[in-house]
Amino acid sequence: MRINMASVLVDDQDKALRFYTEVLGFVKKTEFPAGEHRWLTVVSPEDPDGVELALEPDEHPVAKPFKQGLVADGIPFTSFAVDDVHKEYERLTGLGVTFTQEPLTMGPMTTAILDDTCGNLIMIASM
Question: What CA–CA distance (Å, rounded) separates 22 from 71?
Fold first, then answer.
């Protein structure tokens, strides 16, 4: 068994696609109509056949309160690995990304938490 897909709940698929590709650096993998929305995934350019991240509309009645609760408590929805959190923090702040947690080192791990502009907090982490 292996993980082939993960999801993030987004308030606007177009805005999410722009942020996740143009700012974070992922690349679009799939896009096709799925009802009133689209099945839309991105992948790491370093692993185009690897785990896909689905940009899922947050239309389910529990999705928005769930996301709001996580954000209110400062809890990231998911985490992405980076080679160097400090360098990525500098790159992303230069692009105007808002962080709710600056780089923080805890033992062998360094993390930072950013706002994805789509209703989620996302952790970036390096070992």
Answer: 23
